[in-house]
Amino acid sequence: MFDVGRVADAELVEVMTSSAAAAARAEAVTLAAIAELWRRRRCPERERWVCADWDAAAAEIGCALGMGPGRASTLMDLALALRDRFPGVGALLADGQVTMDVVKTIVSRTALVLDPATLRLLDGHFVDAVAGWGVLSQKKLEAAIDVWIETYDPDAVRRVRTRSRDRSFTIGDRSDADGVTSVYGQLAASDAALLASRLAMMIASVCEFDPRTLDQKRADSIGAIAAGATALTCRCGRPDCAAARIDDGRASAITITVIADHATLDAQPDPQLHGETPKSAYAPRNTAPTAEPAEPAAEAVAEAVGDVDNAAGELDSATAPVASPPAATQSRRAALIVGPGGGIVPAPLLAELIAHGATVRFVGATEGLATDGYRPSAALDRFVRARDLTCRFPGCDRPATHADIDHTVPYPAGATHPANTKCYCRQHHLLKTFWEGWTERQTPDGRLHLISPTGHAYTTAPLSGLLFPSWNTRTGPPPATTTQRPTPGRHLMMPTRGRSRTQNHLAYIHRERELNHHERVEIKPQQHNSDAHNAPPTGCTGDDPPPF
Question: Which stretches make up the HNH nuclease domain (predicted)?
Fold first, then answer.
């Protein structure tokens, strides 16, 4: 850590600015290397492959920088924009005279500009103007950039559209706390009305003694709708309540996988999960809290029940592992690995799922999982998905529930064995199968050692080893493999798409420009009529101030 404890205030500011300039220069070098790698990896004859040349290059970049394919693809777009569209702005970045945030905003706001001559004009104006912009907020920076785009190519101005095209729905955020997941977005007005009506009906389906607040019942109703229910299970606990006997699917649609130890299921639901938040009790100072008996540790995974289609056939949906109790003095732990990013669920909520009908199954044995055929058995499938939890390609965190079970050494040369199988998302499965230069080796503890076309080595370990370190997933080694030569014409089996990524991108730009053009044509007559209506009376001079 750089010691700044004795640096004067003015010098601290100089350190910050010089470090920011150095970071900008480093970013420029990184983007230049990315653009050059893409130039060398571009393969037009494969651009319509489902895993195309762009995806293969993004995979190499993602491995090198420790990021997923989406972020790597974004950096590729940015690198090519500086190289081909705004070389002047790129030179400013390389000289440390502009920040990466400014560069990203310029590239984003000018995404609809296609004419090379216009791009050259804009690049020149941005180079001259950036020094005079000073420190601008994001909104002011976008406005400063849009002024020049409006001047030279008004159809390319990025417009905020308030119609139904703005609808979106997002599940999950990096800042989500244990046990909850945020959802946010915008629905079409008709869809929102339908949802509000359904929520009102489901809230009304429980009795007056249900302990949940209105917000809690509304949130629980969303889960019930996702499970296909039309009514909400009442949580009143009264034997004479008919709504309490309704199954809303919020628990019965969940499968909880426990690793080896049945005792991990003895947790009790927390009665304070529902209702108003209790007031915190006052504790006098210097008073030691009363020690509560420690519960035995428990690790479990819950996930929605369903079948997943993958390359190995139709298999049961995967669950995450649960380790044996490491020590009676540790607090109970539970985990929920479902959907992008996963999340941790408190043990009382896991216990409530079990109490209300969640399916429980036990996984943990590491022997006897190998099969003779190509398709893994249900037991092997559950074990591999529970062990890996995500795609095993470096930087990729797509969930194992939607991944393929891939043979590290291709079958039949390689056995269908836990030490020779792992989870790959479909994109990285296709990359490994059809793109040359990637080699991999798997060890009995589940670690995957991958070598890229440039010879760089990367190692990934199963995520379960981080979440549940007490679960030993090591298996015996697979049977000895035989040498298998690549199948001639194998590339002909790669699935293809109707349009390449470039064609899709250009189609989007042309469509957006067309909408912008029609919008400008419609607004201009309205503005003209409004100006004529508000024109001053004849004989009045526009330069005179209005009377007060």
Answer: 379-430
> Do 309 and 392 have their domain in common?
yes
Q: Where are the alpha helices (DSSP H) in 134-246?
A: 138-152, 189-203, 214-226
Q: Give the model confidence (pLDDT) of 473-518 as tens digits.
A: 888 888 877 666 666 666 678 889 999 999 999 999 999 999 899 8
Domain boundary among 156, 188, 211: 156
* Domains identified in the chain, total number: 3
pTM of the model: 0.74
Final residue belonging to a domain, choices 443, 464, 482: 482
Closest by CA to 383, choosing from 459, 471, 497, is 471
The rounded radius of gyration (Å) of the Cα atoms in the chain is 30
Peptide bond into 412 cis (omega under 30): yes
Closest CA to 352 of 208, 254, 476, 461: 254
Range of the domain at 50: 9-156
Taking residue 209's Cβ as centre, other Cβ atoms within 10 Å add up to 13
366 and 242 in a common domain: no
Tell me, yes or no, whether 35 and 104 share the same domain.
Answer: yes
**Residue 368 and residue 234: Cα distance in Å, rounded?**
44
Q: Which residue has the tokens 């002047």?
A: 88
Q: What is the DSSP pairing of strand 254-259 with strand 448-451?
A: unpaired
The total number of residues shown for the chain amounts to 548
Instruction: Please give the structure tokens belonging to residue 534.
Output: 């508000």
pLDDT, one tens digit per residue, over 313-368 is: 222 333 333 333 343 334 444 454 444 444 556 667 777 777 778 777 777 677 78
- DSSP letter at 542 equals T
